[in-house]
Amino acid sequence: MSSAAAAERGHPGRAPLSGAPASPRTLLVGMGNPILCDDAVGIRLAQALAERLPPAAGLAIEEQCTVGGLNLLDLVAGFDQLIVLDSIKTKDGRAGDWYRFDGSALRETMNLSNVHDANFATAMELGRRMGMHVPADTDIHVFAVEVRENLTFSERLSQELEEALPELLTEMLVEIEALL
Protein backbone atom coordinates (compact mmCIF):
# COMPACT_ATOMS: atom_id res chain seq x y z
CA MET A 1 0.00 0.00 0.00
CA SER A 2 1.36 3.41 -0.85
CA SER A 3 1.48 6.14 1.76
CA ALA A 4 -1.53 7.73 0.08
CA ALA A 5 -3.42 4.49 0.60
CA ALA A 6 -2.21 4.40 4.21
CA ALA A 7 -3.64 7.87 4.74
CA GLU A 8 -6.94 6.76 3.27
CA ARG A 9 -6.99 3.67 5.53
CA GLY A 10 -6.92 5.63 8.75
CA HIS A 11 -3.32 6.77 8.96
CA PRO A 12 -3.86 10.52 8.48
CA GLY A 13 -0.48 11.35 10.01
CA ARG A 14 1.21 9.70 7.06
CA ALA A 15 1.23 12.12 4.21
CA PRO A 16 1.16 10.99 0.58
CA LEU A 17 4.45 11.30 -1.29
CA SER A 18 3.06 14.13 -3.39
CA GLY A 19 1.85 16.07 -0.35
CA ALA A 20 3.75 18.40 1.94
CA PRO A 21 4.25 16.59 5.25
CA ALA A 22 5.37 18.47 8.34
CA SER A 23 9.10 18.68 9.10
CA PRO A 24 11.18 16.68 9.52
CA ARG A 25 10.27 14.78 6.41
CA THR A 26 11.07 11.08 6.56
CA LEU A 27 10.65 8.49 3.83
CA LEU A 28 10.58 4.79 4.67
CA VAL A 29 11.26 2.64 1.60
CA GLY A 30 10.88 -1.09 1.08
CA MET A 31 13.32 -2.00 -1.67
CA GLY A 32 13.56 -5.15 -3.71
CA ASN A 33 12.01 -7.22 -6.43
CA PRO A 34 8.71 -8.86 -5.44
CA ILE A 35 9.26 -11.83 -7.76
CA LEU A 36 12.84 -12.73 -6.81
CA CYS A 37 12.31 -14.81 -3.67
CA ASP A 38 14.19 -13.28 -0.70
CA ASP A 39 14.95 -10.05 -2.57
CA ALA A 40 11.40 -9.04 -1.59
CA VAL A 41 12.16 -9.01 2.15
CA GLY A 42 12.44 -5.20 2.24
CA ILE A 43 9.04 -4.88 0.59
CA ARG A 44 7.45 -7.36 2.99
CA LEU A 45 8.92 -5.53 5.99
CA ALA A 46 7.73 -2.13 4.73
CA GLN A 47 4.22 -3.47 4.20
CA ALA A 48 4.09 -4.86 7.74
CA LEU A 49 5.61 -1.72 9.27
CA ALA A 50 3.06 0.46 7.48
CA GLU A 51 0.40 -1.33 9.50
CA ARG A 52 2.29 -1.22 12.81
CA LEU A 53 3.97 2.18 12.95
CA PRO A 54 2.00 4.78 14.84
CA PRO A 55 0.93 7.75 12.72
CA ALA A 56 3.71 10.30 12.56
CA ALA A 57 3.66 13.75 11.03
CA GLY A 58 6.04 13.95 8.13
CA LEU A 59 6.32 10.19 7.56
CA ALA A 60 5.78 8.85 4.06
CA ILE A 61 6.01 5.15 3.27
CA GLU A 62 6.82 3.68 -0.12
CA GLU A 63 6.22 0.00 0.47
CA GLN A 64 7.48 -1.27 -2.85
CA CYS A 65 10.43 0.42 -4.52
CA THR A 66 11.81 -1.44 -7.51
CA VAL A 67 13.76 1.42 -9.08
CA GLY A 68 17.48 1.90 -8.88
CA GLY A 69 20.23 4.05 -10.27
CA LEU A 70 19.49 7.70 -10.86
CA ASN A 71 15.74 7.02 -10.76
CA LEU A 72 16.09 6.90 -6.98
CA LEU A 73 16.56 10.66 -6.95
CA ASP A 74 12.96 11.19 -8.05
CA LEU A 75 11.83 9.17 -5.05
CA VAL A 76 14.01 10.66 -2.29
CA ALA A 77 14.28 14.29 -3.39
CA GLY A 78 12.82 16.65 -0.80
CA PHE A 79 13.13 14.32 2.19
CA ASP A 80 15.35 15.05 5.20
CA GLN A 81 15.66 11.46 6.41
CA LEU A 82 15.53 8.13 4.61
CA ILE A 83 14.92 4.69 6.13
CA VAL A 84 15.72 1.90 3.68
CA LEU A 85 14.65 -1.71 4.15
CA ASP A 86 16.49 -4.02 1.79
CA SER A 87 18.17 -7.38 1.35
CA ILE A 88 21.87 -8.14 1.47
CA LYS A 89 23.89 -11.21 0.61
CA THR A 90 27.32 -11.45 2.18
CA LYS A 91 29.92 -14.18 1.84
CA ASP A 92 29.42 -15.81 5.24
CA GLY A 93 26.01 -14.38 6.13
CA ARG A 94 23.20 -16.37 7.69
CA ALA A 95 19.68 -15.90 6.30
CA GLY A 96 17.60 -13.86 8.72
CA ASP A 97 20.46 -11.92 10.29
CA TRP A 98 20.18 -8.18 9.79
CA TYR A 99 22.46 -5.19 9.82
CA ARG A 100 21.96 -1.49 10.35
CA PHE A 101 24.25 1.15 8.91
CA ASP A 102 24.04 4.67 7.56
CA GLY A 103 24.71 6.08 4.12
CA SER A 104 28.37 6.68 4.85
CA ALA A 105 28.93 2.90 4.71
CA LEU A 106 27.86 2.80 1.07
CA ARG A 107 30.42 3.16 -1.71
CA GLU A 108 30.11 5.19 -4.87
CA THR A 109 30.29 3.51 -8.25
CA MET A 110 33.87 3.55 -9.46
CA ASN A 111 33.21 3.57 -13.22
CA LEU A 112 29.95 5.21 -14.20
CA SER A 113 29.40 4.56 -17.89
CA ASN A 114 25.59 4.85 -17.93
CA VAL A 115 22.72 5.54 -15.53
CA HIS A 116 22.20 1.82 -14.92
CA ASP A 117 25.65 1.67 -13.28
CA ALA A 118 24.81 4.26 -10.64
CA ASN A 119 24.42 2.62 -7.24
CA PHE A 120 22.60 4.15 -4.31
CA ALA A 121 25.54 6.16 -2.98
CA THR A 122 26.43 7.52 -6.41
CA ALA A 123 22.85 8.60 -7.06
CA MET A 124 22.67 10.44 -3.71
CA GLU A 125 26.01 12.18 -4.25
CA LEU A 126 25.05 13.23 -7.76
CA GLY A 127 21.76 14.61 -6.44
CA ARG A 128 23.62 16.68 -3.84
CA ARG A 129 26.08 18.00 -6.44
CA MET A 130 23.14 19.01 -8.65
CA GLY A 131 21.70 21.00 -5.74
CA MET A 132 18.84 18.63 -5.01
CA HIS A 133 17.57 18.30 -1.46
CA VAL A 134 18.41 14.67 -0.59
CA PRO A 135 19.22 13.27 2.86
CA ALA A 136 22.77 13.51 4.15
CA ASP A 137 24.63 10.21 4.52
CA THR A 138 24.12 10.35 8.29
CA ASP A 139 20.36 10.69 7.74
CA ILE A 140 20.14 7.60 5.53
CA HIS A 141 19.44 4.56 7.71
CA VAL A 142 19.74 1.18 6.01
CA PHE A 143 18.24 -1.96 7.53
CA ALA A 144 19.57 -4.88 5.48
CA VAL A 145 18.41 -8.47 5.94
CA GLU A 146 20.73 -11.31 5.02
CA VAL A 147 19.07 -13.51 2.40
CA ARG A 148 19.51 -17.06 1.22
CA GLU A 149 18.04 -16.89 -2.29
CA ASN A 150 17.68 -13.75 -4.40
CA LEU A 151 18.08 -15.08 -7.94
CA THR A 152 15.18 -17.54 -8.14
CA PHE A 153 11.84 -16.38 -9.49
CA SER A 154 9.30 -16.77 -6.71
CA GLU A 155 6.73 -14.57 -5.04
CA ARG A 156 7.47 -16.26 -1.71
CA LEU A 157 10.35 -15.78 0.69
CA SER A 158 12.54 -18.74 1.58
CA GLN A 159 11.40 -20.73 4.59
CA GLU A 160 14.24 -19.27 6.69
CA LEU A 161 13.12 -15.70 6.03
CA GLU A 162 9.41 -16.45 6.41
CA GLU A 163 10.17 -17.85 9.86
CA ALA A 164 12.47 -14.95 10.76
CA LEU A 165 10.05 -12.23 9.58
CA PRO A 166 8.10 -11.74 12.87
CA GLU A 167 11.29 -11.32 14.91
CA LEU A 168 12.87 -9.06 12.28
CA LEU A 169 9.76 -6.90 12.34
CA THR A 170 9.72 -6.62 16.13
CA GLU A 171 13.41 -5.72 16.35
CA MET A 172 13.38 -3.22 13.49
CA LEU A 173 10.15 -1.56 14.67
CA VAL A 174 11.83 -0.51 17.93
CA GLU A 175 14.79 1.07 16.12
CA ILE A 176 12.67 2.73 13.44
CA GLU A 177 10.30 4.25 16.00
CA ALA A 178 13.35 5.74 17.73
CA LEU A 179 14.35 7.39 14.44
CA LEU A 180 10.95 9.00 14.07
Tally the helices. Answer: 5
Listing every helix as H and every strand as E from the N terminus to the C terminus, the arrangement reads HEHEHEEHEH
In the residues, how many domains can be counted? 1
Q: Please write the CATH class name.
A: Alpha Beta
Tell me the strand percentage band.
15-25%
C-alpha-based Rg, rounded: 16 Å
Largest sheet data: 5 strands, mixed
Shape: globular
Cα separation of the termini: 20 Å
Low-confidence stretches: 1-22
Strand order of the largest sheet: 2-1-3-5-4
CATH architecture: 3-Layer(aba) Sandwich
Q: What is the CATH topology classification name?
A: Rossmann fold
Helix content: 25-40%
Tell me the total number of β-strands: 5
Structural class: alpha/beta
| Average of pLDDT | 84
Tell me the layout of helices and strands:
Blueprint: H1 3-8, E1 26-31, H2 41-52, E2 59-65, H3 72-76, E3 81-88, E4 98-102, H4 120-129, E5 140-146, H5 159-179
Parallel strand pairs: 1-2, 1-3, 3-5
Antiparallel strand pairs: 4-5
Helix pairs in contact: 2-5
